[in-house]
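During the reporting period the student researcher (J.K.) took over the structure-prediction task from the postdoctoral fellow and processed the backlog of single-chain submissions. One of the processed entries is reproduced below for the supervisory committee.
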Amino acid sequence: MTEEGEIPFAMSGRKPVQKRAQATWNRLLDAAGSLLEEVGVERISTNLVAARAGVSPPTLYHYFPDKYALLAALGERLMVAQNALVVLDPEQDEAAIAAVLEAHVTLTRATPGGAWIMRMLRAVPQLAPIRIASHRAVARALAERVLALDPRQDPQSTEARARLCVDLGYAAIELIFDEPDLPEAPALADAARAIRAVIAP
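J.K. obtained the following structure tokens:
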């Protein structure tokens, strides 16, 4: 959880307010995540997702007008959940940073299709802006904390360093899923060391 509360990255989709509708919305996204892992972006369809979720196609269309709106909400949900794990503390040590990265890996594993959602957000041009907007929001929030500690730092270079830290962390998480035989703890420790070196005030 961030020290300053939720990072300002709003979901663009129409997330329902009522509990029953929220349950349906999440069931649709969970079904989409599982199918994304099974059949990929090209073959996934709203009909497949509706069938997997146990709802009618009109019910799905009540929440998502098309396949890409559904996939966008899927990506946004993961980004929001990952952002909630970020600790906006420029002074945290390497062990704390590695623990945050490990929490991201755990969350992504627990999310249906989590690793494939991350890949989708990098590979699909229509969906890449979701990842970029999320990373920018985290970087801005982190840069603000760095500048609060040391106002003498240049704001533009501070935000650039913060953005690099965010992308280093994201790349480390992707690496864990792309290379399952790679020893996880040392890889995350190396990533944490690199992030600490970049953000150190």
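The committee noted the following: Confidence is low (pLDDT under 50) at residues 1-6.
J.K. will present the remaining backlog at the next meeting.
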